[in-house]
Task: structure prediction
Amino acid sequence: MAVLGGKHQPTLGWILDEHILLLADTKRALLLSSDGLMVACSQGVGADLADRMSAAVSGLQSLSCEAAEFADCERDPWELTVIEYGGGYVFLMAAAEGTFLAVSAAKNADVEAVSYAMEKTVGRLGQAMGIASRDSADAVS
Result:
């Protein structure tokens, strides 16, 4: 069981499998806390990869927040970061309070569909954890 905010949470990986991995060309998904700890992961993500990617993605989120000044958005909450590689993407989205969702996808993934699925997943995760999703609370900053 994952622990978030001092409350024990049943595994949330099935939500990631059901809402993200069923989408064409998605590879993996992680739900992590704002301090870089893995809360849940999709099937097929080993503990070592989950831990390393949680730390790396947490750093990306922090850098994304710092870059807000460049877009004159330093007072606005961070919502989404997309990184494109030669062979695919990494998406990072603010989720429920104190968490964010990371998804990897192949190069031919439908970026809009992945982003939409992530938004729907964020809402579902918020319901499952019993806390407000980013739609009804401030995004992670």
